[in-house]
Design a protein that fits this description.
With 251 residues, this protein is α/β, with parallel strands linked by helices. It has one domain. Helix content is 49%, strand content 14%. The strands form 2 sheets. It has a 6-stranded parallel β-sheet, sandwiched between helices. Strands 1-2 form a two-stranded antiparallel sheet. Helix 8 links the parallel strand 7 and strand 8.
């Protein structure tokens, strides 16, 4: 599979359809597969963090979640085909699970939020087999306490339920660290670190309207909706400037 390396982070050069074809193949195999969703901020952080960069590069599938990655790759003549968001892949995973009978488990965010997400899926998708959930505030790898009894209990519950698909919403870099430490311990087929997707399912966070998404202005919608995000959003122009100044930024 063709990949583009951006500041050392490997991203699969695929479109949405190709990404879904890959995850469908993952679900046919009796072993765990990992999916990461790097965006501009994640790539910039991983550029200077070898451990996290290696974790991202060890995933079975790495999709370009940030529009900055698309622009940056084009600037250096190695264009990624398109932005493939963790949200869109996650929603399609729910469709696949509903149609083909795969089971889903939600792990992450606040107790009341993940419970609400679970209940929302149960009520809006009665044919979907959502078999369990757990909040992300247990003591474990993501809090620097790998192997804690609480983490072991969560893993034991997951393995007892045997979900095919796990949505892991701990946020970067907690979810990536958790996947690296624990994915191979899970009796599942696929785990995706998908950030705030559980919050969106719960209705706690609204995604940008379609027009903003189609125009690649989702970042702008988030900014005008929450001006406190300004520090995060300036990461995109900073990233693009870094790409312009470093001829080896994209390979």
């Amino acid at each position: 599979m063709d990949k583009v390396s951006i500041f050392g982070v490997n991203v699969f050069n695929i479109n949405f359809k190709e990404a879904i074809d890959i995850v469908k193949e993952f679900l046919k195999e009796d072993k765990i597969h990992t999916i990461v969703t790097p965006n501009t901020e994640i790539v910039v952080d991983a550029r200077d963090n070898a451990k996290l960069r290696d974790i991202l590069n060890s995933a079975d599938l790495s999709i370009a979640d940030g529009i900055g990655l698309i622009y940056g790759s084009k600037m250096r003549g190695k264009p990624l085909k398109e932005r493939v968001t963790g949200f869109d892949v996650s929603m399609e995973l729910l469709n696949i699970a509903e149609e083909e009978g795969y089971s889903v488990y939600l792990l992450g965010t606040k107790p009341e939020v993940v419970e609400k997400a679970y209940e929302n899926l149960k009520s809006t998708r009665p044919e979907l087999n959502v078999i369990g959930y757990h909040h992300g505030y247990f003591k474990g790898t993501h809090f620097g306490m790998a192997g804690h009894d609480e983490e072991i209990e969560v893993i034991d519950e997951i393995n007892r339920l045997k979900p095919d698909i796990i949505f892991l919403g701990l946020g970067y870099p907690k979810q990536e660290l958790w996947i690296e430490e624990n994915a191979k311990k899970l009796n599942s087929k696929l785990i995706i670190g998908n950030g705030g997707v559980i919050d969106i399912i719960a209705g706690e966070v609204k995604r940008a309207p379609d027009i903003f998404i189609k125009l690649n202005l989702e970042w702008f919608y988030r900014l005008i909706s929450d001006p406190s995000r300004i520090k995060r959003q300036v990461a995109i122009p900073k990233f693009l400037i870094s790409v312009m100044l470093d001829k080896n930024a994209v390979k």
